[in-house]
Amino acid sequence: MQVLRHNEPGFARKLDRLCAASSLFNSKIEASTRSIVEHVGLKGDTALIEFSERFDGVNLTVGTLRVGDAEIQKAAKSVDSKLKAAIRFAHRNVRDFHQRGLRKGWSGQNAQGARVGEKYDAFDRVGIYIPGGTAPLMSTALMTVTLAKVAGCGEIVVCTPCDKDREINPGLLHAARIAGATEIYRVGGAHAIAALALGTKTIAPVQKIFGPGNAYVVAAKRQLVGRVSIDLLPGPSELLVLADASANPAYAAADILAQAEHGSGFERCWLISTSSKIIAAVKKEIEKQLSGQSRRKYIQKALNKHCWLIQVKSLAESISLANRLAPEHCELMLKNHKEVAKKIVTAGALFLGNDSPTVTGDYVAGPSHTLPTGGAGASFQGLTVDMFQRRTSVVQYSKAALKKSISVIEQFAEIEGLYAHGRSASIRLNP
Asked: Which residues are catalytic, by number?
């Protein structure tokens, strides 16, 4: 980890570099991904089998691409009761949270008496990508599939990689089915995204793709926009902690270590404070707690590359820097956290006070943990249930309402030189 102080030479320049938007864009990855996507488009299931063997070391057949009901039921039986209870607990909170956010249609009259409104319809078929990597992400299944179910999507297709024995973590399978998955395929990486977007003989194409992934998954989603809709392009995890003298250094250190352990080595963590004592205490706690971590090698890699403890002059400067960084997760370990929260406008998710660790959002609080990263929070929001819905405007005019509007319609038509536009309205009043 690195310490940066406001009184150091080149402080502003270093902050500019830190605040530069991160990107998973890499020309070699883009080229490789494009080749994968094209091959899946041409060869379908055959390509999925080839890439699964090449990248994951697993020997699949057409008949084993889909996870059967019997396998899912077997997985459920093997999951112990404590984990089942934990999955139910988290699922209930996620479901209840997003039911409150579900958008509903409305209808009313405009000033001329025409009836106007909006209606919302769930996508018929959606794809959910759940990464494999170094940990079984049961929580990601809950934080994505549940939203699709709440929205009313009829077909919810999950793709996730398997191990060399064709096995998928039983807890993940159980969580996906509890959340509402209707199909599960043991396929990962860019080729899974291509299959969801383009379709194969086994995997029918979807209308929209959701879920996080590695650089190849992100590249595939980006390249296939237009053939399919996507949610966002989430990359490696991020945490920003704003701390003052009221912060508990041990808590802040534990939260930084938690975000750094995901495994990519590209996770980004920042702590910002006006207090040199807090920065020193957090640094000491990170070093102390690191020794007992089971995933120390992953954590150390991220800490060495992308962990910064930053001392600034004022709280106002802290807030400004937080908004520039636009972090995925932002913890406010501040005495006046409620007031500061009003001023943080680019974070993916806010966690208020000493007792709201980011892990509550990762697992149980309710909001989806699929959030913008790499500075994208300045433009994008996290995953919400309405992303699983189409919005359609609805317009119904009577002749009386049309009569009140005709002069304006004709004026616009004349100015734009689109006279048939005007006639299409006037013919209804003066045949």
From this structure: 328-329
